[in-house]
Design a protein that fits this description.
With about 700 residues, the chain is of the alpha/beta class. It folds into 4 domains: about 15-135, Rossmann fold, CATH 3.40.50; about 160-305, GAF domain (Beta-Lactamase), CATH 3.30.450.40; about 375-540, Histidine kinase-like ATPase, C-terminal domain (Heat Shock Protein 90, 2-Layer Sandwich); about 565-689, 3-Layer(aba) Sandwich (Rossmann fold), CATH 3.40.50. The strands form 5 sheets. The chain has a 5-stranded parallel β-sheet with strand order 2-1-3-4-5, with helices on both faces. Strands 7-6-10-9-8 form a 5-stranded antiparallel β-sheet. It has a 5-stranded mixed β-sheet with strand order 12-14-15-17-16. Helix 1 (about 25-35) links the parallel strand 1 and strand 2 (about 40-45). The longest helix has about 60 residues, at about 285-340. It starts with 14 loop residues before the first strand and ends with a helix. InterPro entries: CheY-like_superfamily, GAF-like_dom_sf, HATPase_C_sf, HATPase_dom, His_kinase_dom, HisK_dim/P_dom, HisK_dim/P_sf, Sig_transdc_His_kin-like_C. Its main location: membrane. Its EC number is 2.7.13.3.
């Protein structure tokens, strides 16, 4: 569907409006949303979007923030001026959101911000929720209109005032129930609306797996001597309603209770019991109760679905953290074993080659895990950059050092060209080094062995440009626009000779944009190499700072009786390889495989340093750290968390538990040895950081 002709509403399909000035974005959104089976309307400007809004009704509007002429925020403001679209959900699509922009967007009624490039599953899931809400609301409006017409016709023959009061109640009920998607808030709203308009008391029963009543919410809350709160007879009636899904009217003397099933499609979600004087339970009152129960069912189902989406998102994050932990754990003993082999004086050439292959692949696996988790966090907006003043020369040296093993293994030459001026920029040194290393590694991967790669930096009018150019496989013209898409790969052949997940350049794009920069790629075609460039805000500085030296492994000379190290890890391979490595370096080492054993050994061994895993059986690492700090024999020991959990929450908990350092498996052995050689200096470095 193009933007030149106004689309027509069709059948029961719901309209979704996509507003973006880039045609390729419309293709992407249409591909992602096509399986929803709805009517997708494309507009390439704010003016065209307003035209469609006057003609059609939309379930949700996906609105790009950065557009020429009328930008997304101004378009949203104009949309809100029309009564027809004043309540239409608006989801902003943007590559970069600052706090001011987000505040303006939410003030205009935005319901969400989705980072670009979008994650297809996330976009589909969110749009599906709004589509279902729109369809339900449309059905409700249709039913409400039908019932309102019926009520108005009956009002002419009956009490007009009572009919109006009932209509007002249902309208207010619809507004109130649509205000929140929190299940507890919706449940409370249902009960509050019932009393006193419909009944003297309202009881909401939630079913258990066996079909009985598991949970009861009452309004008003019962007193100690309240015999009518929920008698066994009423409970049995509620159980029957839940099992049969049929309305039940209970009468005893001058009291009555109307019990309605709350359903969602073919599923039973609960039962609503309304209690009061039997004289008030006439057919008109029961009809009003039934209508309200129907609306309450829809509201509670919407809240339940929303809660399920949130729970799924939480479980996904927990899964990613656990996946990283489980993948990093076996990498730790592999890297330790490689370091042990590297210490051998004479190793046959084939074994030395095999050792180096294992080391490189373990490092590559660790980088893939880190990149995958970084992309997940960035897409969710959970990554913040720590800005500081950086020297270009130091930044490039760190990045080149990180990529040197890959370049050396492929016998490739990296030519580095820097501007004559000293260039300064504001940025996160770790993240920007990650960006450049990813670009260099990517160029190395797609270039033949013994080829040349060029890293060139230039400065012009407040902008630093860094480009990495290779002599490798090149990029087909049709793939260039998708270079930075998540999981996008030009090589889709079955052999997958280059490997990778297709996330490296996506990560580069996100991190550069977090620094207020931009990224692009160029290639003359397949077999003609490629050039990836980034631009960042910068300025000419004063005298250039000297580049930071690389961290080189120097054997630690520890005299007899030197540092005593306690290694605590339930993974036997990890504990044994690390213990062997440290003993070869001259340290006194003891090993524990659980928390209680660690505390016991610490009392006897009195370690200077404790290398402690977090995911231990029984007592976890945080609890063990707390215990070590309480024991006088280990109170002053240097505590280092050596774990597969690297997310921000685990790092924060480590600091609270008393750890001095938090290192993610597989740890940098050289860095670890330098810290163990002088624990007090390591602690001072942390204190002054």
């Amino acid at each position: 569907m193009t933007s030149t002709a106004a689309p027509q509403e069709s059948g029961d399909k719901v309209n979704i409006l996509v507003v973006d000035d880039l045609p390729e974005k419309h293709v992407v959104f249409r591909t992602i949303l096509d399986e929803l089976g709805q009517n997708i309307v494309s507009a390439r400007s704010g003016q065209e979007a307003l035209k469609y809004i006057l003609e059609m009704e939309f379930a949700v509007i996906l609105l790009d923030v950065n557009m020429p002429d009328i930008d997304g925020l101004e378009t949203a403001s104009l949309i809100r001026n029309y009564k027809k679209s004043a309540q239409t959900p608006i989801v902003f699509i943007t590559a970069y959101v600052d706090e001011l922009q987000a505040r303006r967007g939410y003030a205009l009624g935005a319901v969400d911000y989705i980072p670009s490039p979008v994650v297809p599953e996330v976009l589909r899931s969110k749009v599906r929720v709004f589509v279902e809400l729109f369809r339900m609301n449309r059905q409700l409006q249709k039913q409400a209109a039908q019932r309102e017409e019926l009520a108005r016709s009956e009002a002419a023959r009956a009490a007009a005032e009572e009919a109006i009061q009932r209509a007002d109640f249902l309208a207010e009920a619809s507004r109130t129930l649509s205000r929140s998607l929190n299940l507890d808030d919706t449940t409370a709203a249902v009960l509050d609306l019932c009393v006193p308009v419909l009944a003297e008391r309202a009881i909401l029963g939630i079913p258990d797996k066996e079909g009985g009543v598991r949970r009861l919410d009452m309004h008003p809350a019962p007193s100690v001597d309240d015999a009518e709160a929920f008698t066994p007879e009423l409970r049995a009636a509620a159980d029957q309603v839940i099992r049969t899904r049929q309305f039940y009217l209970w009468r005893r003397d001058e009291r009555a209770a109307a019990i309605f099933p709350l359903t969602a499609g073919d599923e039973i979600r609960g039962a609503l019991a309304l209690l009061g004087p039997a004289a008030q339970f006439d057919s008109a009152r029961i009809a009003l109760m039934r209508e309200f129960a129907s609306r309450a069912s829809i509201a509670m189902e919407n809240a339940r679905l929303y809660s399920a989406v949130q729970e799924a998102d939480r479980r996904k994050n927990e899964f990613l953290a656990m996946l990283a932990h489980e993948l990093r754990n076996p990498l730790a003993p592999i890297r330790n074993a490689v370091h042990i082999l590297a210490s051998a004086q004479e190793l046959p050439p084939k074994l030395a080659w095999a050792r180096d292959v294992i080391g490189r692949q373990a490092d590559h696996m660790a980088r893939l895990i880190d990149d995958l988790l970084d992309v997940s966090r960035i897409v969710q907006g959970k990554v913040a950059v720590k800005l500081e003043k950086l020297q270009l020369a130091s930044l490039i040296e760190r990045s080149v050092e990180a990529s040197s093993p890959r370049l050396g293994a492929r016998e490739q030459v990296l030519d580095v060209v820097l501007p004559k001026q000293s260039i300064e920029l504001e940025g996160d040194s770790v993240r920007l080094s990650q960006v450049l290393s990813n670009l260099i590694n990517n160029a190395s991967k797609f270039s033949p062995p013994r080829s040349r790669i060029r890293l060139e930096a230039s400065y012009e009018e407040g902008e630093l440009r860094l480009s990495v150019k290779d002599e490798g496989a090149g990029i087909a013209a049709e793939f260039l626009p998708h270079m930075f898409d998540l999981f996008a790969q030009a090589d889709q052949s079955l052999d997958r000779s280059q490997g990778g997940l297709g996330i490296g350049l996506t990560l580069v794009k996100h991190l550069v944009e977090l620094h207020g920069g931009r990224v692009w790629a160029a290639s003359e075609g397949l077999g003609k190499g490629a050039e990836v460039s980034i631009a960042l805000p910068a300025q000419v500085g004063g005298e250039a700072e000297p580049a930071l030296p690389g961290v080189l492994h120097q054997p630690v000379d520890v005299p007899s009786g030197g540092s005593r190290i306690l290694v605590v890890d339930d993974l036997q391979a990890s504990a044994e390889t690390l213990s062997t490595l440290l003993q070869m370096e001259g340290f006194q080492v003891r090993v524990a495989h659980d928390g209680q054993e660690a505390l016991s050994i610490a009392r006897e061994f009195q370690p200077n340093v404790v290398l402690l895993d977090i995911g231990l059986p029984g007592m976890n690492g945080f609890e063990v750290a707390y215990g070590l700090r309480k024991q006088p024999e280990s109170r002053d020991a240097l505590l280092i968390a050596l774990t597969g959990y690297g997310e921000a929450e685990s790092r924060s908990r480590s600091a609270q538990a008393g750890f001095d350092f938090h290192m993610v498996k597989p740890a940098d052995v050289n860095l670890l040895l330098s810290m163990l050689a002088n624990p007090q200096e390591a602690r001072k470095a942390v204190a002054s950081a």
